[in-house]
């Protein structure tokens, strides 16, 4: 029965993904017919302006939204498994802020850097933030303290964000950097997807391959030791995936929080705690959430675009409060 339930949800989310892809390609600042969408993909004519908009702007944005949504959701699932903390998320634990700070530094001191070069710095920033957060949370303890982990993440996030905004104000880049603080998919291009997309895909594949081992992390540390299992490599690979996926995502669309917090909980609610089922569903749900949020951001107030991160936060903040009240005694 469990397998049938998993298959049902997987197929259902795939159908939703397909529908959202079509809607996202068709609707935006200007609307297009189904025929125009079809011809843009299968019978592209360079002289047709509507087809150019779909092919060169809408398609990379839509594909990028789906891939990055999966990356952010995957990061959250990995973080929650490794830390055994239901509130863990790369945005809430300061990792995204570390990446955003390095992006700010790049924009100020190395304005001619390419997207690929700034992405390397973003990944380094995510790595530094994760080392600081996990180092603080495990200080004076052999194991990470979940409560201190959340507090350390919030403190590091606030610290890095303050530095980023301070530098932006001093250098008069506040307006230019607003995009990266609120998040948005408008800058995603084919060249970015071609150069950085494969790294995200590899990270997602590694996460799927780690899924069976992640089930071990659900056990208590004493139980893991009694089984004679060494999960250090699994934890290391998981955190490496989080750093890479989060760093690249921030470099492309800004510091978007809450996707990694919300989606793994929904996946576990639907199919249980087996990560062999949770992880694939998490990737699909993450893609669907970001596609839906991006579609709303583009169509809610045309021709102006609402910041993508605000749409996510409208769902994420109440969900965070709910989880804090529900699982507060466990953190």
TrEMBL record:
Belongs to the binding-protein-dependent transport system permease family. FecCD subfamily. Its main location: membrane. This is Ferrichrome ABC transporter permease. The keyword Transmembrane helix applies. InterPro entries: ABC_BtuC-like (IPR037294), ABC_transptr_permease_BtuC (IPR000522). The chain crosses the membrane at residues 6-25, 62-79, 91-111, 118-136, 148-173, 193-217, 237-266, 278-300, 306-324. GO terms for biological process: siderophore-iron import into cell. It comes from Companilactobacillus allii. GO terms for molecular function: transmembrane transporter activity. GO terms for cellular component: plasma membrane. It is a multi-pass membrane protein. It comes from the Bacteria. It is found in: Cell membrane. Keywords: Cell membrane, Membrane, Transmembrane, Transmembrane helix, Transport. SUPFAM superfamilies: ABC transporter involved in vitamin B12 uptake, BtuC.
């Amino acid at each position: 029965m469990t397998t049938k339930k998993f298959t049902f949800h997987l197929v259902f989310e795939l159908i939703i993904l397909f529908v959202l892809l079509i809607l996202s390609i068709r609707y935006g600042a200007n609307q297009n017919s189904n025929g125009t969408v079809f011809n843009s993909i299968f019978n592209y004519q360079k002289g047709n302006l509507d087809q150019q908009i779909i092919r060169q702007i809408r398609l990379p944005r839509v594909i990028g939204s789906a891939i990055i949504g999966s990356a952010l959701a995957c990061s959250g699932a990995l973080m929650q498994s490794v830390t055994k903390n239901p509130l863990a998320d790369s945005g809430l634990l300061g990792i995204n802020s570390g990446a955003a700070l390095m992006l700010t530094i790049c924009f100020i001191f190395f304005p001619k850097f390419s997207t690929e070069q700034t992405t390397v710095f973003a990944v380094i920033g995510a790595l530094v933030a994760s080392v600081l957060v996990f180092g603080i949370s495990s200080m004076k303890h052999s194991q990470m303290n979940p409560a201190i982990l959340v507090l350390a993440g919030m403190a590091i996030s606030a610290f890095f964000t303050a530095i980023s905004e301070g530098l932006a104000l001093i250098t008069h880049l506040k307006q230019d950097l607003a995009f990266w603080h609120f998040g948005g998919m408008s800058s995603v291009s084919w060249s970015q997807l071609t150069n950085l997309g494969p790294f995200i895909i590899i990270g997602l594949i590694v996460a799927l391959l780690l899924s069976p081992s992640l089930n071990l992390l659900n056990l208590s540390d004493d139980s893991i030791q009694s089984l004679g299992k060494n999960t250090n490599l699994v934890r290391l690979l998981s955190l490496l995936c989080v750093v890479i996926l989060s760093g690249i995502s921030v470099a492309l669309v800004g510091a978007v929080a809450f996707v990694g917090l919300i989606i793994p909980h929904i996946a576990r609610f639907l199919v249980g705690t087996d990560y062999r089922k949770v992880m694939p569903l998490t990737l699909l749900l993450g893609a669907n959430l970001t596609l839906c949020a991006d579609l709303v951001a583009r169509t809610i107030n045309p021709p102006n675009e609402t910041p993508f991160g605000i749409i996510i936060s409208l769902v994420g903040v109440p969900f965070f409060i709910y989880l804090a009240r529900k699982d507060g005694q466990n953190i």
